[in-house]
Write a structure and sequence with these properties.
Blueprint lengths: L19 H4 L3 H6 L18 H15 L3 E6 L2 E6 H5 L5 H7 L3 H7 L2 E3 L4 E4 L3 H13 L10 H11 L8 H28 L14 H12 L5 H23 L8 H27 L4 H6 L1 H23 L3 H10 L2 H13 L13 H12 L1 H26 L10 H12 L12 H74 L1
Parallel strand pairs: 1-4
Antiparallel strand pairs: 1-2, 3-4
């Protein structure tokens, strides 16, 4: 006959008959022992004690179990964690709290401690601590999709729990979401820096002619600051367009006569004077000369005005003395002078880039190209591979045909580039069946190649343009509100001054 053991004082469903490890215990061990998976469910029970004994048991219970449990108060929510469960991870904050015996070290780990309740208080997020609490009970760190990655990483770093304790599938998705969030934050900062000017109004305080330079800076760099600033911005765009139209009309045959050339020269001189004065005003209002020269838009402004002055310099060289002409003839540079002048005149086309200073669309396009340079470089690499591959194939197939244009691989590059871009001029075509099959493969590859990056580039461009436009609208709205507030302040000040002046007049 099996020996009957003492019955446990808890009604745990996990009790097995004949389990000597869990049943054969002293009364003191029996009070402390609770199965780990049922800590929150098991209650001590005894039907043979009176109310006084039960109250005494309740008063003694926290003192008995405080040695084996950590009472953690996280943001007002109370958690009970077994010391053995926390001690299994000694590197974590709660693991150190369970291992340390020195009260001073324990106080350094928590924000506050209640002696009466034996509670360690932590001023952290209790909603995320539920996952930390579950980690100590199960050994697995669960991650939910709706949690903010940066906040979750900050919390688990505080508690000393590593991300490696989570499941691999959850960890991969979480890391992808974290990388996407960090990339979006980086792009957002770069977008804000794209719209923010290089200088700020506060940088002119305490400097030489600070108020004067600040006024010029607002006129040139801040078109929303006043009505004259808006007028200057509109005039800058108009002069760029007038300059481009003038350069275009100067190539028309009807404008080559003396009167037409004279008007075109006057127009070019007026535009150059305006662009030069604009550049000098930006240079004067700049607080740092190095930053001014490093800015891309300022380099565009310099390129826009240099051709005019270089052209004047070369024209003066042409009309110089005979000795200088002889030296030029000896150096054999006179024949190249006309080509250099044409090249310098062609540089005026870069003036159209000045519109990027006042155009959100051009800024968004440039920002898209900078952000997607890897995709663009990859596209150019694929185009080069296609050109070299299909030109070599076409030459190997068509070089024996009499009167063919594919006499060498370099001669076939033009055909391959035109076919890959699906333009198809038709100036060079294959004659054999194999050549036409190669041409069909080249055109098919070009269609696939052209279709890949369009969606990526367009989606990013539309996203960046919308963000830049929204940021620009917010800036203009805040400036309008500040101007209205200043107008109200000035009106109230004038009204108060008038009210003070009226009693003096009566006296």
């Amino acid at each position: 006959m099996r020996h009957l053991e003492r019955r446990r004082m808890s009604l745990s469903a996990g009790l097995k008959i004949g389990d000597h490890h869990s049943c054969c215990q002293t009364p003191e061990e029996e009070d402390v022992y609770i199965p780990f998976a049922q800590e929150s469910l098991v209650k001590q029970w005894s039907s043979m004690q009176n109310v006084t004994d039960r109250n005494q048991e309740k008063s003694k219970k926290p003192l008995q179990r405080s040695k084996y449990f950590l009472n953690i108060n996280v943001g007002g929510t109370l958690f009970h964690i077994a010391c053995k469960a926390a001690a299994r991870y000694p590197v974590t904050r709660l693991g150190k709290l369970a291992i340390y015996t020195d009260p001073t070290k324990k106080l350094q780990l928590c924000d506050d401690y209640s002696v009466q309740k034996n509670e360690y208080f932590f001023d952290r997020d209790p909603s995320i601590f539920h996952y930390i609490f579950h980690f100590y009970r199960s050994g697995v760190l669960w991650i939910m999709d709706e949690m903010c990655p940066s906040n979750f990483v900050e919390e688990i770093e505080y508690w000393g729990v590593h991300l490696k304790y989570s499941q691999r599938c959850c960890r991969i998705l979480f890391e992808e979401k974290q990388d996407e969030l960090s990339e979006n934050l980086k792009i957002q900062k770069e977008l804000e820096a794209e719209l923010e000017p290089l200088e700020s109004a506060e940088q002119f305080e305490g400097k030489c002619l600070g108020q004067f330079r600040k006024m010029i800076w607002n006129l040139i760099e801040n078109p929303y600051s006043s009505v004259p600033a808006k007028i200057i911005a509109v005039m800058s765009s108009l002069f760029v367009l007038i300059s481009i139209v003038g350069m275009t009309l100067s190539t028309v045959e009807e404008m080559q006569h003396k009167t037409g050339k004279k008007w075109m020269e006057v127009l070019e001189m007026v535009c150059a004077i305006f662009f030069t004065s604009e550049y000098l005003m930006r240079l004067i209002s700049s607080s740092s000369f190095k930053k001014f020269l490093r800015a891309a838009l300022n380099a565009v402004d310099l390129v826009a005005i240099l051709p005019f002055y270089i052209q004047i310099l070369f024209e003066n060289l042409e009309e110089g003395d005979t000795l200088y002409h002889e030296e030029l003839h000896q150096m054999e540079n006179v024949s190249k002078l006309g080509k250099v002048l044409k090249l310098i005149k062609l540089m005026r086309i870069f003036r159209i880039l000045k519109l990027a200073r006042h155009s959100t669309g051009l800024r968004a396009f440039g920002f898209t190209m900078r952000q997607c340079y890897q995709q663009v470089c990859c596209l150019l690499l694929f185009i080069a591979m296609g050109v070299f591959t299909f030109s070599a194939l076409m030459h190997s197939v068509e070089h024996d045909v009499p009167g063919t244009n594919f006499t060498s691989i370099p001669y076939a590059w033009w055909w391959a580039a035109v076919s890959l871009s699906t333009v198809g001029y038709g100036d060079t075509v294959p004659d054999t069946v194999l050549g036409r099959m190669v041409a069909f493969g080249c055109i098919s590859f070009g269609i696939i190649l052209n279709g890949m990056p369009i969606s990526i580039l367009y989606n990013k461009f539309s996203d960046y343009y919308a963000k830049l436009k929204a940021h620009e609208n917010e800036t203009s709205l805040s400036l309008k509100l500040s101007r209205r507030f200043r107008f109200k302040e000035r009106a109230l000040r004038k009204l108060s001054e008038c009210c003070r002046a009226e009693p003096r007049c009566h006296q």
